[in-house]
Amino acid sequence: MVIRSLEEEYVKLLRDYLNGPGEDQLYVAQQMGKWLLARNISPEELTDMHGRALEKLGDVPEFVRASFSILTEVMIEYGNEHRSVHSWRSRHQQLEAEMAVAQAMQQTLLPGEIPAYPGLEIGLVSIAAKQMSGDYYDFICQDEERFCLSVADITGKGISAAMCMSMLKYAIDSLREMPLGPDEMLHHLNRIVGRNIDPSMFVTMLYGAYDTRLHSFRYAVAGHEPGFLYRASEKKFADLEGQGSALGLCPSSEYEVREVRLEPGDVLILLTDGVTECKKNRYYLQRDELILHMQAEVGVHAQKMANALYNRLLTLSQFELLDDYTMIVLRRT
Amino acid sequence: MDLFMNTTSQEAEHLVVLGGDIDAHTGPKVKETLMSLANQPGASRILVDLEAVEYMDSTGIGIFIAAMKACKQNGCAFEVQKLSPRVERLFRITGLYEHIAVRKGESE
């Protein structure tokens, strides 16, 4: 029925055009082409319809009629390709829908809100370079004055990193009730990660415990990009020291606990390598250049500083994030 | 940038020269080569030359970790040489430096 009325429309269009060619008919033909594509009318069906339309308009010379057999055969190949593209497009849409579900699920692995503690501001910016992020962070409340935090980078991006993240999250959740120091936490996580991920994957992590009574931060590092410590009294940034093998690299790795104490105005910046992988034209941003940017933004609320630094680095990289980006700013008030 | 890779073998010893970018796009080819050498029966030593490597991300580090683990399991020595400062920094931060033999005097 649809085809028949379409065919009538097509005959009318063709007749009008042959009686006096005009731009209007060409425009209608374009629109009809889009309509036919949207309804998956194959090129060979259209060729047949054109042949039938010619027959309705008058006597068709035999050689023209015969030529349609050749054209139809050729169009069948175009039709096959068209159906194949259509099938891939449907599959792609299905995968995108599945990816959106996975992305939403991944979001549930990350904390919904930033906790508030006395005398301490916490700022956070975490942006995925692609749909799925390989960056992980978490705040684990111990009581009203103490919390643990972790920031981690899982090799690669995409689905594999997201699956590894869920394993990491549940491992930390199962260990959080135990009275473990940061070094012991990393020790346990290293064994869990090493047993459960592909040999070519690894996780870098900083795990620490902050006590707002003393404003002390005890932490351990597993192959993670060093953070920064800003001393307000000196007005200077320095690397947050600490080193240890990435999780999953070697089952016997040991980790060392370090401690820093924050004085009023001091700032602790924890990050993933997406921050330092910022590309400025053809060159990567050096840590001393990053410090200059941090110096320019220090002294304001932790969240404001985190936002400002992200905007600066995004502009420097010409709005193209190469890697997942996570920065946590802790500022003692 | 593309990946450059050249392997020369002398009996059970293999030299793999890498250049260009080692990232998520080029990594699978490097991994396939290194893992194939590491799992070759009787392989005694794999030396990877990184002098011409322009860029390496965590995918590259993961490949070296996998190759190192496979070599360890198969009793094969795994070494790297001529790391650029940027790659050397990655090796140091991730702790890989402590687990992979870096040929001395040729890391700069």
Automatic annotation (TrEMBL), chain A:
<dbReference type="Pfam" id="PF07228">
    <property type="entry name" value="SpoIIE"/>
</dbReference>
<dbReference type="InterPro" id="IPR052016">
    <property type="entry name" value="Bact_Sigma-Reg"/>
</dbReference>
<dbReference type="InterPro" id="IPR014787">
    <property type="entry name" value="PSer_Pase_RsbU_N"/>
</dbReference>
<dbReference type="Pfam" id="PF08673">
    <property type="entry name" value="RsbU_N"/>
</dbReference>
<dbReference type="GO" id="GO:0016791">
    <property type="term" value="F:phosphatase activity"/>
</dbReference>
<keyword id="KW-0378">Hydrolase</keyword>
<protein>
    <submittedName>
        <fullName>Phosphoserine phosphatase RsbU</fullName>
    </submittedName>
</protein>
<feature type="domain" description="PPM-type phosphatase">
    <location>
        <begin position="117"/>
        <end position="332"/>
    </location>
</feature>
<dbReference type="InterPro" id="IPR001932">
    <property type="entry name" value="PPM-type_phosphatase-like_dom"/>
</dbReference>
<dbReference type="InterPro" id="IPR036457">
    <property type="entry name" value="PPM-type-like_dom_sf"/>
</dbReference>
<dbReference type="InterPro" id="IPR017944">
    <property type="entry name" value="KaiA/RbsU_helical_domain_sf"/>
</dbReference>
UniProtKB/TrEMBL annotation, chain B:
<dbReference type="InterPro" id="IPR003658">
    <property type="entry name" value="Anti-sigma_ant"/>
</dbReference>
<dbReference type="GO" id="GO:0043856">
    <property type="term" value="F:anti-sigma factor antagonist activity"/>
</dbReference>
<dbReference type="Pfam" id="PF01740">
    <property type="entry name" value="STAS"/>
</dbReference>
<dbReference type="InterPro" id="IPR036513">
    <property type="entry name" value="STAS_dom_sf"/>
</dbReference>
<protein>
    <recommendedName>
        <fullName>Anti-sigma factor antagonist</fullName>
    </recommendedName>
</protein>
<comment type="similarity">
    <text>Belongs to the anti-sigma-factor antagonist family.</text>
</comment>
<dbReference type="InterPro" id="IPR002645">
    <property type="entry name" value="STAS_dom"/>
</dbReference>
